[in-house]
Known about the structure:
Layout: E1 8-13, E2 22-25, E3 42-47, H1 50-61, E4 65-69, H2 73-88, E5 92-96, H3 110-118, E6 122-128, E7 134-136, E8 144-146, E9 150-156, H4 167-194, H5 197-201
Parallel strand pairs: 1-9, 2-5, 2-6, 3-4, 3-5
Antiparallel strand pairs: 6-9, 7-8
Amino acid sequence: MHLQEFFTYIVEMDNPGITPCIYVMWHKNQFCVYGLQDKGNVNILISNSLDGEIVSYVVQKMGFQTCRGSSKRRGSVSSSLKMISKLKNGENIAIMVDGPRGPIHKVKRGAVVLAREAGVPIVPMHWYSPEPTFVTLPSWDKMKSPIGPCRIVNVYGKPIYTDGKTDEEVAEEVRESLFNLERIAPEKYKEAKKLKLWRKRK
């Protein structure tokens, strides 16, 4: 991943730039956080599992902060309190909403509860590239990753607020937004290419 960093070019489209917020993505798109500009102010929620240990090491090397969590009650409560504190301190959080073990594309309540408790919006995000170096790995979530030189676009949805909505309604809104981003990502990539955004970034 450290070597790949030199060959990965990500540009952002429609990032609302709200701080603090909770960035959410599908587990398969977990590495899209690399495209976030203010990495030092982003806390990545990562499970306490063995593969979580590997991911935690990687994202810390990339300049992010990490917050380890567990599906067990004691670990879950502890990590939730830490994240609420970070959000109220003006820091951002990134959560893979169907992780760490699925089921795939099922939005779990964690991000919704955190957003409600901290009074911050949820910002869906998705990454996309049509290039052959943007591959799908043979994992349960069909994780996406660049391997070799790759131009990628990060696409963001409109902020989602919890006020006046049930947890289920917010979760469904998050789910629909993530699917919509997946649908529009190819056109956003073409737009970024037309605007020569990767060249401007260099």
